[in-house]
Every structure is written in C-alpha cells, then in structure tokens.
Amino acid sequence: MAENGLNEKQASKVKLYTVALIYTFSIGFSFLAIKECVPYADSLTILAYRYDFALLGVIVWFSVCRLLGKQQKQPKDRPKSKLYLTAGFYVGFMILQITAMFFATSVEGAIVFAVVPIFAKIIARIFLGEKSTILQNIFVVITVAALIVLIILEATNLTMSLTGIILMLAASISMAISNVFMRYVRGTFQPIEITRTIAIGGFVLFNIIVWIRAAIKGDVHSLLDPVTHPQFLISIAFLGIFCILLSAQFMAYMLAHMEIVQSTIFGNASTAISILAGAILLGEPLTIHHIVCALLILAGVIGLALAPAPAENSGKKLGD
C-alpha cells in the first residue's frame, strides 16, 4: 500500500511539472505568434481576437465534455464573488499591461513584470499565510535578478517614464493578486471554471472596446480584415487557445498544487525562453550573457521546485 501511495505521489508530481513546462513554453513562444499578428492588426484588436478564440476553445471544451458525459455537476450555492475577483484581476492585468505599453517599451515592461513572483510571495504571505525558507528565497532572488540582468543587457535604450512604471507595477500586482485568488478558490472551483470566467470576461470587455472604437472611427472593416489572412488566423488561434485558455488552465492547476511563488516563477522562465527562441529561431545574436543568464534562471526555477517547503504551508484562506 505504501509503495502504491508513493507511486501515485510521484505520478502526480510528474504530471504537475509537465503542466508547468508546457505552460512555460507556451508563454515563451507567444511572442513569435504576436510578431506574426502585428502586420495585420493593432495590439487591442489582437487582444480582442485572442479572447474570441479563448472563448471558442472554452465552448468546444464544455461541448465535448457534455457529449462524452464527463461534465461534472457542481454545487449551485458556491460563493462566486472570489471567482469573479480572480478573473477580474487577471483581465485587469491585461488592461493595465496594454495601457502601460503606451508609456514604456516592452523591454521596460518585462523588467517590472519580472518581479511578479516577489509581489505574489508577499501577498500570499499576508493573506494565505504561506511562508518560505531561506533557500527558497535565494532561488527566487537568483531567478529574478538573472532575468532583469538579461533584459537590461538586451535593451539598447531604457527611458522609463513615471506613468509607465506605475502602470506596469499595477499590472504586476494585479497579476499577483489574481494568482493568489486562483490558489484561494482551488478547493471550490475547478481550473476550467476559472478559465471559463476569465475567457468570458475578457471576451465581453475587449470586444466592446474595439467595436465601439471602430464604430466611432467609422472603420468596422479594419476589425474584420485580419481574419482574411491565414497567417493571422493561425497565430491568433495559438495566442487565444494556448496562451490564454490553456495557460490560464495550467496556471490554475499549478496554483492548486504548488505554492504561489513556485507557480509564478515559471513565468520568469518563459521570458527567458522568449529571448532565447528569438536568437535561435529568428537568427538574432546569441551571446554569452544569454547563455549564462538563462542557466541561472533555469537553476533558480529548478532549485525552487526541488527546495522543501515549510511544513506549515497548508494554504490558509484569505482573511483567516
């Protein structure tokens, strides 16, 4: 019996880190798809279409589950407010991120977003009572510091504005809070339910914005033109289904089985993968600092994953 229990535990851990790796690579390669979309639409239109495909994926998911008879009935009296807050902060992160890009470059944004694990760690400590060991903190610092150094070395011109910094910090905090809520509601809502709420919220909000904007400009045709290009459709489908639907699903699953800081640190690894993928797939220069920083980030992520967590981290609820 003990051996069976150990095997199940090992299998569960393999599944968890497989999900984490898929999440990391999906987000890491998203920039390639975004670059493919840029010639056909602006950032807000791209984001609206991303949520269109995310919602389409959710509809297909639930339709298939219903046809196969695998859709589980859930209690109707569950508190929905925390679920809506989880989705609200996630979508809020997207809004703040887009707005921040008007005042700062993507490189500058990446530097600020690199500290999301630290924000999440602080918020989780306050509201969930999750503690961390000195060894865990060392690995977090290594990963965050290596990523920031890598981004700075990649930048040719950093001109941070105060408005941009404030908006990007707000976006990072919003994402961190969303992650904390995802972990909080893990015992009440399934990951797909969290993802569905995020997809519906983003779909409604961003489509209202882009259609109102198009109506005011009298240029509705510009919204429909991108979908006539197969290259745009393929890329936006990847961004919506993999980088919103599945990534939110994977993050919710990770947060249900990992501490906040362990889950969010994989986002830093995805940023490093984005830079390295650009060097390998797009022929951009690959230097020694790429390799050294990437190895440090990888070491930090692996170290944090393997480092033993404090025994008292039982996942207290908000406000307990």
From TrEMBL:
<feature type="transmembrane region" description="Helical">
    <location>
        <begin position="46"/>
        <end position="69"/>
    </location>
</feature>
<feature type="transmembrane region" description="Helical">
    <location>
        <begin position="265"/>
        <end position="282"/>
    </location>
</feature>
<dbReference type="InterPro" id="IPR050638">
    <property type="entry name" value="AA-Vitamin_Transporters"/>
</dbReference>
<feature type="domain" description="EamA">
    <location>
        <begin position="163"/>
        <end position="304"/>
    </location>
</feature>
<feature type="transmembrane region" description="Helical">
    <location>
        <begin position="194"/>
        <end position="212"/>
    </location>
</feature>
<keyword id="KW-1003">Cell membrane</keyword>
<dbReference type="Pfam" id="PF00892">
    <property type="entry name" value="EamA"/>
</dbReference>
<feature type="transmembrane region" description="Helical">
    <location>
        <begin position="16"/>
        <end position="34"/>
    </location>
</feature>
<dbReference type="InterPro" id="IPR037185">
    <property type="entry name" value="EmrE-like"/>
</dbReference>
<feature type="transmembrane region" description="Helical">
    <location>
        <begin position="159"/>
        <end position="182"/>
    </location>
</feature>
<feature type="transmembrane region" description="Helical">
    <location>
        <begin position="81"/>
        <end position="104"/>
    </location>
</feature>
<keyword id="KW-1133">Transmembrane helix</keyword>
<keyword id="KW-0472">Membrane</keyword>
<comment type="similarity">
    <text>Belongs to the EamA transporter family.</text>
</comment>
<protein>
    <submittedName>
        <fullName>DMT family transporter</fullName>
    </submittedName>
</protein>
<dbReference type="GO" id="GO:0005886">
    <property type="term" value="C:plasma membrane"/>
</dbReference>
<feature type="transmembrane region" description="Helical">
    <location>
        <begin position="135"/>
        <end position="153"/>
    </location>
</feature>
<feature type="transmembrane region" description="Helical">
    <location>
        <begin position="232"/>
        <end position="253"/>
    </location>
</feature>
<dbReference type="InterPro" id="IPR000620">
    <property type="entry name" value="EamA_dom"/>
</dbReference>
<feature type="transmembrane region" description="Helical">
    <location>
        <begin position="110"/>
        <end position="128"/>
    </location>
</feature>
<feature type="transmembrane region" description="Helical">
    <location>
        <begin position="288"/>
        <end position="307"/>
    </location>
</feature>
<keyword id="KW-0812">Transmembrane</keyword>
<feature type="domain" description="EamA">
    <location>
        <begin position="18"/>
        <end position="151"/>
    </location>
</feature>
